Amino acid sequence: MDATDRRYFEEEDSSLTKTMKGAATGLAAGTIWGTVVATWLDVPRVERNVALPGLIRTLKMMGNHGLTFAAIGGVYIGVEQLTQSYRQKRDFVNGAVGGFVAGAAILGFKGKSISTALSAGAALAATSAAIDAGGQTTRVDTGKEYYPYTTKKRADAAN
Predict the structure, then answer these.
(1) What gap in Å lies between CA 121 and CA 119, rounded to an integer?
(2) Is residue 46 exposed (0-12), middle (13-18) or buried (19+ Cβ within 10 Å)?
(3) Which of 53, 80, 99, 117 could cysteine-pair with 124, CB 3.0–4.6 Å?
């Protein structure tokens, strides 16, 4: 491993912290997605023994989607970090392995079928590999500092 690869391993967050962040982010995103899906579906009929059936159904959908997304995020990041530490490389293969395991384990379990597990794993692996191999990122360090205020002096302010 050369010095340029080593700097990527010397990060502030541990693998466990990254895994927990992935699960928390998945929980938040899944809860929001569950709310959206619940608004698209028909409101259930009012039942005699159930108070606020629409609210209960919405909360169940939010919880279901939130826990599913949290599990996918946690497994994906956890397996990606394990693969990265085992291989001592930081490339698209780590994300592809994490995506396959997350898709196959979580979505395959929910779908209760091996074909669903393999197709979900392959879809997440291909998506992750395409994003990682394409160099897509949300942050690029240009070395430039940005301030919430102007640092240049105006010419008319000196007068």
Answers:
(1) 5
(2) exposed
(3) 99
